[in-house]
Design brief:
The structure holds two protein chains of two kinds.
Chain A lengths: L4 H10 L6 H18 L19 H6 L13 H6 L4 E2 L2 E2 L8
Chain B lengths: L14 H9 L5 H19 L2 E4 L1 H16 L11 E5 L26 H8 L3 E6 L33 H8 L5 E6 L5 H7 L3 E3 L19 E6 L2 H11 L17 H4 L8 E5 L9 H16 L3 E5 L7 H16 L17 H12 L2 H14 L5 H24 L2 E5 L15 H5 L6 H6 L3 E9 L3 E8 L5 H13 L6
Parallel strand pairs in B: 2-3, 2-4, 7-8, 7-9
Antiparallel strand pairs in B: 1-3, 4-6, 5-10, 9-11, 10-11
Helix pairs in contact in B: 2-3, 5-6, 7-16, 10-12, 10-13
């Protein structure tokens, strides 16, 4: 077994994801099978291989430069807040974070 | 009374056809959009390919085009062309759900650059197309809004994740559409629905406004009924966008000028590694017949090896899920989308995400978080990144010997609805021939290559080197013109 029930619980907590008892066991078994399959990568000796951290090659990257840092008018706050679950313009309201 | 009514003729519109009809005043852009909406109204309840329509926006745009026509003004490249947009691409004022309950009522305050460019080129945006939730899936069955049916075979899936975008074009409910491809999500549904479908190089099309799944893989690309139209749409959406730092300034050649150039002498690699076990015999026969077409056109066929192909799915499902777990952290019930109340901030997060995401998305978040977590990062994520280098290297080496690579798009034709939903790993393996190019960053197209028993479409995939879209389109067009679709 590659992944235990405790592992799934720990990871779900890291991801702030509520899982039902049923989901927990189903995903554990399925992910276990997937990890088993992924294990085939160990057939490859990658000790001398660099990880591929960028998709574009170096000269293509030079192309993909950052734009100039200019101030651009962006008056969407009202629109954005209109679609928030619990807006209190100009703020988003959330449940109490700090207990006093 | 048994007066049998004549079936309405489904006109197969092309981009050029629309332009000619508009210029000759045979139809107005407004009437054309109206006709498409009528057809959508009739067929969509069965297909479930559109999730939302934007008739007001379409009418406004069509009227603009009609003013140009009336004034005898030159028409832009997509004048009046009815198009559809996958629901992971932001459209200002029109709901963009990503096929997820967590964004059920989300209305973006801005347009994606690709959408903006389509409209600036005259396209009429009809609406948003169904897809697997957050583009995670290979059958469109992971949509929170129900599966899409394959217009070619309604008991079968259209492929995924861009199943709706493929289905609307195949069913004549849009002339072209945009999809997104992370591991095959444009090319595989294109192949299942029997239409050409293209993923440009990584960095070729701006992703500003694309709701992210896996940022080192996600790409936007077109579906259309023919290769020339695919080229035309790609032309419009390609090119540098200052709002996406991963879009490159590499010049965008005139793709349509590449079409029709002779293909004689072009070297095509046939990687043995793509013709292994697991391939449907019917698919294999069609692909072999397709390769024969290229041979007849005078292309030089070269046997090549791409030895890391077999490791691509494992690599992909590490990298894609890791990136997804990070990208999807933003759905927290605070700024947009669903919120499920909890008695603390953290419990609100947990409940919102638990209720808002579907099964496949949760599975991938758990897997992705796991492969990135302390103690497992080196064994999984870093290993995956290293094998990704080897897969990219396979492509680099191949392109020192050949100009393009031919493979099947999918090992199987469209499968039956419900057939694979209980086994995620089996579903993942449907992407076995497409994920390689996604990992390597190269462009690829799926082009129709016959139908098994005259029914189920097969797609032939053509890979080119990075920024070799022109060559890929040229070959696909030549294949189409040589009757590739009916081998």
């Amino acid at each position: 077994m590659k992944i235990s029930r405790e592992d799934v619980l720990r990871v779900a907590e890291l991801a702030y994801l509520d899982l039902s008892e049923n989901e927990l066991e189903t995903y554990r078994a399925q992910i276990d099978e997937i990890l088993e399959y992924i294990g085939k990568l160990n057939e490859l000796d990658t000790a001398k291989v660099e990880p591929m951290a960028q998709v574009l090659t170096t000269d293509q990257q030079a192309d993909a430069t950052l734009r100039e840092d200019l101030v651009v008018l962006c008056a969407v706050a009202e629109d954005v807040l209109k679609h928030a679950p619990d807006p209190e313009p100009p703020y988003f309201r959330v449940p109490k974070v700090i207990e006093r | 009374m048994r007066t049998k009514q004549k079936e309405p003729v489904t006109a197969t519109w092309t981009i050029d056809g629309v332009k000619e009809a508009l210029a000759a005043k045979k139809i107005s852009a407004r009437e054309l959009a109206g006709d498409f909406y009528k057809r959508i109204e009739a067929k969509n309840p069965e297909l479930n390919a559109y999730l939302a329509l934007s008739p007001e926006r379409a009418r406004k745009q069509a009227d603009k085009i009609d003013v140009l026509v009336a004034g005898g003004k030159p028409l832009p490249p997509l004048a009046g062309v009815p198009v559809a947009i996958k629901d992971v691409i932001s459209t200002r004022g029109t709901k963009t759900t990503c096929g997820s309950k967590i964004l059920e009522n989300y209305v973006p305050p801005y347009d994606a650059t690709a959408v903006e460019r389509l409209e600036a080129a005259g396209a009429v945006i009809l609406g948003k197309t169904n897809c697997d939730e957050f583009a995670m899936g290979s059958s469109n069955e992971n949509s929170a809004y129900g599966p899409v049916k394959n217009p070619v075979a309604p008991d079968r899936v259209p492929g995924g994740s861009s199943g709706g975008s493929a289905a609307v074009v195949a069913a004549g409910l849009a002339v072209a559409s945009l999809g997104t491809d992370t591991g095959g999500s444009i090319r595989q549904p294109g192949s299942f629905c029997g239409i050409p479908a293209m993923m440009g190089s990584y960095g070729r099309v701006s992703r500003y406004g694309l709701i992210a799944f896996a940022s080192s893989l996600d790409r936007i690309g077109p579906f259309a009924s023919n290769v020339k139209d695919v080229a035309t749409v790609l032309q419009v959406i390609a090119g540098r966008d200052p709002r996406d730092s991963t879009s490159t300034t590499a010049p965008v050649p005139d793709y349509r000028a590449e079409l029709g150039k002779p293909v004689k002498g072009i070297r095509l690699g046939i990687p043995k590694d793509y013709f292994g076990e697991g391939m449907d015999a019917g698919v294999q026969r069609k692909i072999e017949a397709g390769i024969e077409v290229f041979k007849k056109m005078g292309c030089e066929l070269v046997d090549i090896r791409m030895p890391h192909t077999d490791y691509a799915i494992a690599t992909y499902y590490i990298i894609a899920t890791a990136e997804a777990s990070s990208n999807l952290a933003r759905y927290d019930g605070v700024r947009y989308g669903l919120r499920v109340d909890g008695d603390s901030l953290l419990s609100m997060y947990r409940k919102t995400r638990g209720a808002g995401f579907g099964a496949e998305v949760k599975r991938r978040i758990v897997l992705g978080t796991y492969v990135l977590s302390a103690g497992y990062y080196d064994a999984y994520y870093l290993k995956g990144q290293k094998v990704r280098s080897l897969i990219a290297q396979d492509f680099h080496e191949a392109f020192t010997k050949v100009d393009a690579i031919l493979t099947p798009t999918s090992p199987v034709p469209a499968f039956k609805l419900g057939e694979r939903t209980d086994d995620p790993l089996q579903m993942y393996l449907a992407d076995i021939y497409t994920v390689t190019g996604s990992l390597a960053g190269v462009p690829g197209i799926s082009v129709p290559c016959g139908r098994i028993d005259g029914k189920l479409p097969v797609g032939l995939q053509i890979f080119g080197p990075a920024f070799g879209e022109g060559r890929v389109l040229q070959l696909a067009h030549a294949f189409e013109q040589a009757g590739g679709a009916s081998v």
